[in-house]
């Protein structure tokens, strides 16, 4: 089975990764908004003990 010539395919792969890394990825990352951390303090609740009928 003959092997493919890597010269044109390597160039196509490099151009596509360059396009993704430099052009598409920054545009996509600017659309995603991360949730900012809230300044609300967390409240801890104490659990009520279970009342066992046989004790």
From TrEMBL:
Ranges annotated as spanning the membrane: 6-24
Region (Disordered): 36-55
GO molecular function, one term: proton transmembrane transporter activity
UniProt KW Transmembrane keyword: yes
Gene Ontology cellular component list: mitochondrial membrane; proton-transporting ATP synthase complex
Its membrane topology: Single-pass membrane protein
Pfam assignment, any one: ATP-synt_8
InterPro entries: ATP8_metazoa, ATPase_protein_8
Sorted UniProt keywords: ATP synthesis, CF(0), Hydrogen ion transport, Ion transport, Membrane, Mitochondrion, Transmembrane, Transmembrane helix, Transport
Main location: mitochondrion
Compartmental location: Mitochondrion membrane
GO BP annotations, alphabetical order: proton motive force-driven ATP synthesis
Domain of life of the source: Eukaryota
Family: Belongs to the ATPase protein 8 family.
Name by which UniProt lists this protein: ATP synthase complex subunit 8
Organism of origin: Turnagra capensis (piopio)
Lineage start: Eukaryota, Metazoa, Chordata, Craniata, Vertebrata
């Amino acid at each position: 089975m003959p092997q493919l010539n890597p010269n044109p395919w390597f160039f196509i792969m490099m151009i596509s990764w360059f396009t993704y890394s430099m052009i598409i990825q920054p545009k996509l990352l600017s659309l995603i908004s991360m949730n900012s951390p809230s300044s609300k303090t967390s409240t801890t609740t104490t659990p009520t003990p279970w009342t066992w009928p046989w004790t």
